[in-house]
Write a structure and sequence with these properties.
Structural class: mainly alpha
Shape: globular
Helix content: over 70%
Largest sheet: none
Oligomer: single chain
Distance between the termini: 34 Å
Number of strands: 0
């Protein structure tokens, strides 16, 4: 099985990232892809994301970027998290681990997500919020 080009690109970005600035972005990207099988009703996800966007706007400049530990991301994560959804995300992370053989930086990021389910879920919620901001 060949490695997906986006995983190779992410590996290169993480390899040259000496300051660790790309790691939060990489975690969000990986969680987003890993969460492809998370079952969310569109109206539920949209409503929760809109409420999180209001928190983001109330906190100041929404253009400053998203923070995995910020109020908006945490609120969205708390609102949408269920056991079944968390398990679906973890299965997705495990599938990506199988695709990242030979990519040490991506493998390390995936191991960190798998070891910290709370961070993995916030990274997934952050990806949902980023999608909403892009619309």
């Amino acid at each position: 099985m060949s490695t997906a080009p986006w995983l190779l690109s992410l590996e290169r970005a993480l390899a040259v990232d000496e300051g660790g600035d790309e790691l939060p972005t990489a975690l969000v990207v990986l969680a987003s892809v890993a969460g492809a099988e998370v079952q969310l009703a569109e109206d539920e996800a949209h409503g929760a994301a809109r409420r999180a966007l209001l928190l983001l706007a109330a906190g100041g400049d929404p253009e400053r970027g998203l923070d995995l530990n910020g109020r908006a991301v945490a609120a969205l994560a708390d609102e949408l998290r269920t056991v079944d959804r968390q398990l679906a995300l973890e299965r997705g992370i495990d599938e990506l681990k199988g695709q990242s053989t030979g990519l040490p930086h991506v493998s390390e990021a995936l191991a960190a997500l798998r070891a910290t389910p709370e961070v993995a879920w916030r990274a997934y919620a952050c990806s949902l919020l980023a999608e909403q901001l892009a619309e």
